[in-house]
Structure formats: structure tokens, C-alpha cells
């Protein structure tokens, strides 16, 4: 039983004993005993302060026996309550309460953040990548031990998290699902991931959902429930083993890129919104290599309308310098994460002149 629950039960028991004592003093003491007198007698007896009796027990054997029982129970209970309160203060429970309130305020202020449900063997690696790329996120797990273990492994003592079941709508609401950009459901059970997907999609129709899927036959159900993408650890693991056998140098290069400590190199994407600074410019004008030290790998461009507001797209690999950037396209680049952030900020800028003047 945790300390907060022990304190709660101890206080409830103390209040109950006081109530029983007051009732006993009034019943056994006679009609002349008022409520205030009975309450005062109960408090000084339980506290053991040694004040004189205001209710005479010398002529009432039953009342005296009752008073002896109150003294015995009171001393034992009072010592226990004080020991629990002391432990509560010493072990920092009050500090944790204030920290959780402050943490919830920080979560409420987040916009376009990520939510990771499940901090097991899969979720903790997702969190590690989000930390490396300095992506704001909220972790959700039903076991506090998993959160503490993650804090120790990552060294992030002020990790934003919500303790609870990701399939609970109230828990997702605390994690800021209404304003989240993406939710990663990494629970060990496919059925649990399905429930999380349904709940998240109901609360935010625009959020991107990536769900863990152990059984590939379950992937279609997850997508029908609202997941944008599913990932099978077994499938990915098998592909990785085949890649190690077929193209070891490529895998080694990617591993070095992911594990580099001095600077974070990644294959990233830069979306170009409608009205953004890069719309209408050519790849030469943007100059990703010269201005941002980024290597453009491909561009995903919209080619038409399909199923209401969803666009059909195609990839242009190794885009030529003369290629003109259009709204809603996505540029896939490789380079330092900080440079990618700077390029994204410029792409989202509304004034072309401000970007070109840099």
C-alpha cells in the first residue's frame, strides 16, 4: 500500500474513532453532557495531553471502562498517524503533489505535441527518439515504476507524464489529446492499442495515430478504427536482420547517424503550407544545401483530389534544382535536426522577402 493511501486510511480511522468516542461520552455520560464537552473529552483523551476530565467518570463504571478503551485505542492510533504523516513529509509526497500540479499546467500549455501510450520495450525507444530530436511529448503509462525507470534511463527528471490507462478518455484528455499532433500507441496488447486508437480518434479527428501491432492481421482493424499507420516490431525486426545480411555498410551508416552524440543527424521532412514562404520558389532559390546544410532526398507532391479532402501524392526522388515548390508538398531531407527546425520555420513564414533576406 503506498504512503498516500496509508495516510488517507489513517485519517479516516482517526475521524471514525473520534466520532465513536463523542457518541459514547454523550450516551454513557448522561443527558447533561453536551456535544462540545464530549468532543473536547474525546480529543484530549486521544491526544493524551493529560488535562483533567470534564466528564466525571468516577461514579460511572461503564463510562470509565469506555474511557480506558478510548485511551488505549487513541494512543496507538495517534502514534501511527504521526508516523505516517512524518514519512509523508520526509519522503517528499507533498513536493510530488505540487510537482504534478505544475506538470499538469505545463501539459495544458502544449500544442502540436506527441503522446506516447505505453512505456514498455517499444514505447521507451520511441521516447528516446523524441528526446534526441527535442520533440515535445507527454508519456502515458498505468505503472509508475515504468515512468521512474524511464526517468532514470534518460536522465530526464522533469519528464512530462500522465499516470493512468491510455484507453481512458479522461487520461487522454489530461495528456492534451485535443491539441496533440500525433499519438503513438505502444501498448503490448493489440486489443489495447485498438481501444486507445478509437478513443483518441473520437477526441481528436485530426491527430495522427501510429499504433503498435504484433499480429499483422490486426493491422487492418487498427486502420479502420482510425490509425494512420501501424508498426509491427516483429516485421521491422525481420527486415532489419535481412538488411544486416544484405547491406551491412548501409545499416552501419544509419546506426552511426542515429547514435551520433555531437549532433543529431536524421532523415526529416519539411512540409510547405499554403501561403508559406517557399511556395512558388525553385529548389535553387531555397538552396537547402547552402543555406541549411541539408541534403534533399525527395519531394512528395500533391497531384489531385481524391476522396473529398485527401490528396493523391507522388514522390520525386532527387529533385532537380529547377523544380518549383508547391503548397502542401513535403520535402524529405537529411541533415542536422537543428538546421531542419530552422528550415521548417522559414518554410512556414508568410513573407518571402523575410526568408530571402537571410
In short:
The protein has 15 helices and 10 strands. With 358 residues, it is of the alpha/beta class. The strands form 2 sheets. Strands 3-2-1-4-5-6 form a 6-stranded parallel β-sheet, with helices on both faces. It has a 4-stranded antiparallel β-sheet with strand order 7-10-8-9, covered by helices on one side.
Terminal-residue CA separation: 60 Å
Please give the radius of gyration in angstroms: 32 Å
Oligomer: single chain
Q: Give the SSE order as H and E letters.
A: HHHHEHEHEHEHEHEHHEHHEEEHH
Structure characterization notes:
With 358 residues, the protein is α/β, with parallel strands linked by helices. The chain folds into three domains: 3-90, Helix Hairpins (Orthogonal Bundle), CATH 1.10.287.70; 110-237, 3-Layer(aba) Sandwich (Rossmann fold), CATH 3.40.50.720; 264-356, 2-Layer Sandwich (Alpha-Beta Plaits). 52% of the residues lie in helices and 16% in strands. The protein is built from 15 helices and ten strands. A six-stranded parallel β-sheet has the order 3-2-1-4-5-6, with helices on both faces. A four-stranded antiparallel β-sheet has the order 7-10-8-9, covered by helices on one side. Strand 5, helix 9 (219-225) and strand 6 form a beta-alpha-beta unit. Helix 1 (3-29) packs antiparallel against helix 3. The longest helix is centred in the first third of the chain and has 30 residues, at 61-90.
Amino acid at each position: 500500500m503506498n504512503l498516500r493511501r496509508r495516510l488517507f486510511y489513517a485519517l479516516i480511522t482517526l475521524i471514525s474513532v473520534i466520532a465513536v468516542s463523542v457518541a459514547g461520552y454523550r450516551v454513557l455520560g448522561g443527558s447533561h453532557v453536551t456535544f462540545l464537552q464530549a468532543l473536547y473529552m474525546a480529543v484530549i483523551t486521544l491526544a493524551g495531553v493529560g488535562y483533567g476530565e470534564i466528564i466525571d467518570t468516577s461514579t460511572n463504571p461503564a463510562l470509565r471502562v469506555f474511557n480506558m478503551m478510548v485511551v488505549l485505542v487513541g494512543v496507538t492510533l495517534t502514534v501511527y498517524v504521526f508516523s505516517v504523516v512524518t514519512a509523508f513529509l520526509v519522503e517528499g509526497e507533498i513536493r510530488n503533489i505540487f510537482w504534478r500540479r505544475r506538470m499538469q499546467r505545463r501539459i495544458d500549455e502544449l500544442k502540436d505535441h506527441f503522446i506516447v501510450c505505453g512505456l514498455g520495450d517499444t514505447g521507451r525507444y520511441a521516447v528516446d527518439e523524441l528526446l534526441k530530436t527535442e520533440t515535445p511529448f507527454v508519456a502515458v503509462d498505468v505503472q509508475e515504476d515504468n515512468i521512474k525507470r524511464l526517468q532514470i534511463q534518460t536522465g530526464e527528471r522533469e519528464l512530462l507524464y500522465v499516470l493512468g490507462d491510455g484507453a481512458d478518455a479522461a487520461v487522454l484528455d489530461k495528456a492534451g489529446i485535443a491539441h496533440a499532433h500525433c499519438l503513438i500507441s505502444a501498448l503490448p496488447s493489440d486489443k489495447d492499442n485498438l481501444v486507445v486508437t478509437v478513443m483518441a480518434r473520437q477526441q481528436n479527428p485530426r491527430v495522427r495515430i501510429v499504433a503498435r501491432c504484433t499480429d499483422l492481421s490486426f493491422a487492418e482493424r487498427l486502420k479502420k478504427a482510425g490509425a494512420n499507420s501501424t508498426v509491427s516490431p516483429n516485421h521491422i525486426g525481420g527486415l532489419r536482420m535481412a538488411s544486416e545480411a544484405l547491406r551491412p555498410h548501409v545499416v552501419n551508416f544509419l546506426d552511426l547517424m542515429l547514435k551520433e552524440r555531437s549532433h543529431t543527424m536524421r532523415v526529416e521532412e519539411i512540409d510547405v503550407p499554403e501561403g508559406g514562404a517557399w511556395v512558388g520558389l525553385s529548389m535553387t532559390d531555397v538552396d537547402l544545401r547552402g543555406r541549411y546544410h541539408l541534403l534533399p532526398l525527395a519531394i512528395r507532391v500533391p497531384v489531385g483530389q481524391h476522396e473529398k479532402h485527401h490528396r493523391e501524392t507522388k514522390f520525386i526522388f532527387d529533385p532537380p534544382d529547377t523544380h518549383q515548390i508547391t503548397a502542401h508538398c513535403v520535402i524529405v531531407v537529411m541533415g542536422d535536426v537543428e538546421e531542419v527546425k530552422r528550415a521548417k520555420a522559414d518554410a512556414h513564414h508568410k513573407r518571402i522577402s523575410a526568408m530571402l533576406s537571410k
